[in-house]
Design goal:
It is built from 14 helices and 2 strands; from the N terminus they run ααββαααααααααααα. By secondary structure, it is mainly alpha-helical.
């Protein structure tokens, strides 16, 4: 009677083992993909689907509205609406203000805390990060009280110094909103940059100091180039966030006439959905916002990567 040799048994076991890891991976990965499909892909797909329909009523409007296929009609309505187009231009201007301010503020804080002369790093790190834990609605309310002349001690101090200022005027409202966003998210972006700075080998700093480089030169010529990837990351996050501006203008809207219901694309979509009960046009506007954010962020990443490749190749 033939018997299976140990070598044959081992070979057979080795052939069967790869199936178990695959099964384990499937068990752990499947819940994520299910949640991703249910809570991310499905809402996006439903919004896109709704954007291709519209409700129409016949006669005197006494009959029930009828849902009909509109094709790209809702997109054409959004893109030909002066209010919506103006809101898109407004968030693009806001991006030009907020993105550089955010990146510079986060980088400055990270470099200060990573400096060899920094003291009480843990305390200041937590202090700078604390505003990120404040919900956007609360942060907008807090700064709103500081922007209103009747309740703001800041305006009183500026007026006493001969510097009267209106934070809620049409000329300054974008800067005021940018201040809220920078105050809230600079600490979070700072931590991302600090994590990148801590990954830099200390030997590079020591070599630079041996060569006589000051802390400022080390920061500019050693630290900043080596945190290029985190800088790109926080720039993309900030860029996407500015294009989705919603909470701050929504909370500040009752405090000023400079903000209307269509001040940003997200506010315009919100107004169409809940103010005008036109969820189909709102879906089209929301889809346009998503496409715009994707195109701009993808274009930025492509441009940065192309420049990085040219720098590495010495062109």
């Amino acid at each position: 009677m033939l018997q299976r040799t140990p070598a044959g048994t081992a070979a057979g076991t080795a052939r069967r083992r790869p199936r178990r890891p695959r099964l384990h991976v499937a068990v752990f990965v499947t819940p994520f993909f299910l949640a991703f499909a249910l809570f991310y892909l499905a809402p996006i797909g439903y919004a896109v689907y709704q954007s291709f329909f519209r409700l129409t009523s016949s006669g005197l409007g006494l009959s029930e509205p009828v849902l009909e296929f509109a094709g790209l009609g809702n997109y054409a309505t959004a893109l030909t609406s002066p209010a919506f187009v103006a809101s898109v231009g407004r968030v693009l201007v806001f991006s030009l203000i907020e993105v550089p301010a955010m990146v510079v503020a986060a980088l400055a804080l990270a470099l200060l805390l990573d400096s060899a002369r920094a003291r009480f790093r843990a305390f200041f790190r937590v202090s700078f990060f604390l505003p990120y834990g404040v919900p956007g609605v609360i942060a907008s309310l807090l700064w709103g009280f500081l922007y209103v002349p009747q309740t703001s001690p800041l305006i009183d101090v500026l007026a006493a110094a001969g510097l009267p200022h209106d934070f809620l005027s049409p000329q300054t409202i974008l800067l005021s909103i940018a201040n809220i966003a920078t105050w809230q998210f600079a600490g979070y972006n700072m931590l991302v940059l600090i994590a990148g700075l801590q990954a830099i080998p200390q030997e590079l700093y020591e070599a630079a100091r041996v060569d006589g480089a000051s802390e400022a030169r080390i920061a500019w010529h050693v630290k900043v180039p080596l945190v290029r990837a985190p800088l790109i990351l926080i720039t993309v996050f900030t860029l996407i966030g500015t294009l989705q501006l919603f909470v701050e203008p929504l909370i500040l809207k009752p405090l000023t006439t400079a903000i209307n219901s269509d001040y940003t694309p997200n506010l315009a979509a919100y107004n169409q959905a809940f103010g005008q009960a036109n969820i189909h046009l709102a879906s089209a506007e929301a889809t346009l916002i998503a496409v715009m954010a994707f195109v701009i962020s993808f274009g930025f990443l492509r441009s940065v990567n192309r420049k990085g490749n040219r720098a590495w190749s010495g062109e």
